[in-house]
Amino acid sequence: MLKRPVVPVASWVLSVVLLAGAAAASAQTISGTVRGAGRPVVGATVWLLELDRTERTGSAGDFRFADVPTGTYRIYASATGFASATDTIQVTTGTASAAFELRESAVPLKAIAVSAAPTARPAEEQYQPVASKSRVEFDNSAGTSFAEKISDLPGVNVRGNGSAPSRPILRGLGDNEVLILENGLRMGDIATYDPAHATPIDAMGVAQVDVVRGPATILYGPNTIGGLVNVITNFVPTVGDHAVSGTAALEGNSVSGELSGYTNTILSSGGSAFRVSAGGIRSTDIRIPSGSYTDPASGASFDLDRIPQTFDHSGEVGLGYAYQGGFGSIGIGGNHYEMNYGIPGVPPNPDWETVPPTTSRITQQRNTVELRGLFNTGGTWLQRLKLDASYNDYNHSEFPTAEDSTGVSDPQANHFHKQELNAVVQFEQRPTGRLSGTLGLWSDIQNLTIEGDQPLGPNSVTTGLAAFAYEEYLAAPGTRLQGGLRFDYNRIQTHPYPQSTDSVFQTLDESRLSNAVTASLGAIQQIGPRLTASLSVARSFRAPTVQELFANGLDAASGTYSIGTASLGPETGTGVDASLKGDFGGMTFEVSPYLNYVSHFIYGFLRGDTIQDFPVRQFAATDARLFGFEASVEVQPLPAVALRASSDYVNAQDTKNDLPLPFIPPLRGLLRATYQNRTWMGMAEWRVAARQSRLGVGDTPTGGYAVLNLGVGVRLVHRGLVSEVGLHCDNVFDRVYRDNLSVIKDFVPQPGRGFRLNYELFY
After folding, report:
1. pLDDT tens digits for range 526-546
2. Angstrom distances, CA of residue 668 to CA of 156, 274, 702
3. Which of 22-31, 402-411, 588-597, 649-658 has the lowest mean pLDDT?
4. CA 490 from chain center: how many Å?
5. How far is it, in rounded angstroms, from Cα 20 to Cα 433?
6. Residue 194: how many CB atoms within 10 A of its CB?
7. Which residues is 36 bridged to in the sheet?
8. Interstrand relation of 435-452 and 459-476 (parallel, antiparallel or unpaired)
C-alpha cells in the first residue's frame, strides 16, 4: 500500500487549495470565428494556449471561451486543408473577440506542443527540437501502436516485438533513458523492464503526441536523458461551449485482422463537464510475406505467413468530471485499461523436445485516477497555480508457452503489481518586466511487488522528490533566453519477502540514495523575418532502477536470465542541441544537429553463459557518446500540394571500450507527397533506410530497404458534424525487409502489405 508517500503530496494539495482560495480573478469571455476561402470552417480546433483549453468551431465557424481572467492570451486556430494561425488578444472586461481568416494549405505550418515548456506554445518557440502529431495525423500514419504511428517523425524510431510491445526510440536511446508520459505524468507500468513489456496505451484513444528530442530533466525529472514522449489522452475533460461534443472512431487493418473502435463524449452544462469514453482492439497474428524463416537459436526452419503469437486484445473505459469558474478549473478523471497480448517466438511444433516453443502471453490491467487543477490566483507575483497528479494501480502477469506430450499450455510464471503516485505543482509567475517563469515541486513514489515461480527482482519502494525553476528572459525583441535548475532526491528501498520463491529476495534489505542537481540553458534568436536559430545545453540525471541493481531471475517473456549489478551508480548526461528553422512562404525547413555525452551509461548485455538453460543478461555501465542530426524540408508548389523530405542519423559509441553501442538505427529518409484541401486528401510516401553494419555487442546487421505507403481520404461536413474517412495501403509491394531495432529481426521480417480503413467522427 502507498501510505508513506501520501503525506508530502497531501500537504502540497492542501497548499494549492489554500492559495487558490486566497484570490479569485474576475472572469471574462473570448468569442470569435474561423473562416477560410470566404466560408465558415466547421470543426476547426481553437486553442487558448496559456490556459491549455481547446474548442471546436460550430456550424457557423464560431467558438467561445468562458471564465477567462483578464490578461494577454494567444489563440491558435487550425483545420484540415488550411494553414494554422495564431492571434494575440488583450482581455480586459466583458467579451474579447478574435476573427481568423485561414488560407488554404496542404500543410498546417505551425504545431503546438505542450510538453517542452510549462505552457503550450508553437514548436518554433521551443528551445529544443519538438514534434507533435494530432489524432487526424495518426489516421494517416502506418502501424497500429502509438509508437509505430510516430516513427515517421525525425529522430523517432520504434523498437518492435510484435504488435503490442512496440516502444519509441529517440536518437538511439530508449527504455530508462526516454520517458513515456500520459498527460504529462508517469504511467505506473513496467514497460522498461523488458522489450516484451507493452506500454498500456491504445492509439485509438490518443488526442495528440508530443516528442521532445534531447534532455528534458528540468520539468520531468530522471529518465529523460534522451528525451520524452508525452501521450495526451485527456482523462480530465474541459468545459466546452457545446452541450455535447466528442469523437468516435473505427479502424480496420488487414495485416493483422485488426478491428478497433473508440468513443469519447463530453457533456457540458454551465461550468460543469462530464466525460465518458470506451474503446477496444481485437487483432490476430501479423501477416508477413509467405516464406521459410529460420530461428537463429535452434536452427529450425518454419513455413510462415504470420508472425507467431502477435495477437492483441485490449479494452478501456473512462469517466471524468471537471468544474470551471472565475477561480479557474479543477477536475478528476479515471480510466480502466486491460490488455492480453502475445509475444512472438518459435511456435509450438511437432519437434518440441529439441525445439521448444519460445512464445508467451502477457496480461495487463491498469487503473488510473488523475487530478488536474488550474487556479487563477490574481496575485501580484503568482499569476496561476497548476496542479497535476495521478495514481496508477498496475497488474502484469506473464504466461510462457509450454509444450509436452499432453499438449500446449501457458502456465503463469510471475506477477508484477505496481502502485505509483506522481504529483506536480507549478507556480506560474506574473511577468516582471522581461522576466517570466515557473517554479515547481514534484514527487513520484513507486511501490513494486513481484510474485510467482520466476520473480525477476525484489519487492521495493522508490521515492523521488524534486524542486525546480524554469525562467525565461526577453533580452531583445528577437532574442529570448532560458535557464532552468532542478534538485532531485531519489531513494530505492528493497523489502524482504519471505514468501518469495527466490531465496535472495526472501531476505534482501538494501537501500540506495541518489541526489542530483541538473540544469539547462537555452537561447532563441530571430535572424530576420524568416529564420530562427535555437541552442540548448542541458545536464541530465538518472538513478539506476531496482531491476538494474538487484535483478536475479528468469524473465519469462524474453527468455533470458537477468542479473543486476548492485554497485551501479547514477547516469549523468550533458546534451547540446542546436536548430535552424526557416519559413519562406512556399518552403519551410529545419536542421537540428545534436551531441549527447552520457557518463556511467547503464545497459544490459548477454554474458555468453546460461543459467537454467537460458542466456544470462547482466547490467553494467560504461561511458557513451551520441551525435547526429535531423533535417526536414517542405515545399508547396500549389496551395493544396505539399512535398516533404526528411532524414535523420545517429552515431553512438561506447567510449570506454571503443565500440559502437548496439541496436542503433541506421541513416533513414522519408519522401512524402500530399494533396490536401478542405475535402479531399491523397498521399504517397517512400520510407527508406540504409543498411546497418556498424554493430555493437550482440547486434546483427540488417540490409537497407525502401517501402511505399499510399493513402486517400475525404472530409465531409454536415451542419456541426465532421466525418473523416481514410483508406491506406502500407508496404504496397509486400517487401520482405528487416528493421535493425526489431527484437525478432533475426527470425522474421517486418509486416507485409496491409490495408487500413479509418473512420473518424467529430461532434
Report:
1. 998 999 999 999 999 999 999
2. 10, 44, 13
3. 22-31
4. 23
5. 24
6. 24
7. 39, 102
8. antiparallel
The three cell numbers locating residue 571: 547516469
- Contact partners, residue 137, CB within 8 Å, separation at least 6: none
Asked whether 34 and 64 are in contact (CB, 8 A), the reply is no
Q: Which of 744, 691, 742 is nearest to 294 (CA)?
A: 744
HSE toward the beta carbon, residue 285, CA cutoff 13 A:
16
According to DSSP, the residues that pair with 435 across neighbouring strands are 432, 473
Q: Three cell numbers at 58? A: 460550430
Instruction: Tell me the pairing of strands 227-232 and 178-182.
Output: parallel
**Residue 6: its H or E element:** helix 6-22
CA dist 534 and 521 (Å) reads 11
220's enclosing H/E stretch is helix 217-220
Burial 623-636 (b: 16+ CB within 10 A, else e): ebebbbbbbbebeb
User: In what helix (H) or strand (E) does residue 477 lie, and over which residues does it extend?
Assistant: none
Three cell numbers written together for 590: 529545419
Measure Cα distances from 732 to 87, 289, 396, 687 in Å: 42, 12, 37, 12
Q: How far apart are CA 137 and CA 159, in angstroms?
A: 21
DSSP string for 479-539: EEEEEEEEEEEEEEEEE--TT-SSHHHHH---EEEEEEEEEEEEEEEEETTTEEEEEEEEE
Q: How far apart are CA 136 and CA 204, in angstroms?
A: 11
Q: Strands, E, within 677-735: which ranges?
A: 680-689, 705-718, 721-730
Measured CA to CA, the distance from residue 671 to residue 684 in angstroms comes to 8
Residue 38 in grid coordinates? 470566404
CB of 81 within 8 A of CB of 640?
Answer: yes
Q: Which three cell numbers stand for residue 517?
A: 542537481
- Which cell is 561 given? 536470465
CA atoms within 13 A on the CB side of 631: 11
Distance CA 552, CA 564 (A): 6
Gyration radius of the chain's alpha carbons: 25
Q: How far apart are CA 98 and CA 273, in angstroms?
A: 24
Cα 464 from Cα 222, distance rounded (Å): 9
pLDDT in tens, 684-741: 999 999 999 999 988 999 999 999 999 999 999 998 899 999 999 999 999 999 999 9
Q: What pTM does this model have?
A: 0.93
Spatial distance between the Cα atoms of 134 and 45, rounded to a whole number of angstroms: 11
DSSP 80-129: TTB--EEEEEEE-SSEEEEEEEEPB-SS----EESSSSSS-EEGGG-SS-
* Rounded to 5°, angle at Cα 367 from 365 and 369: 165
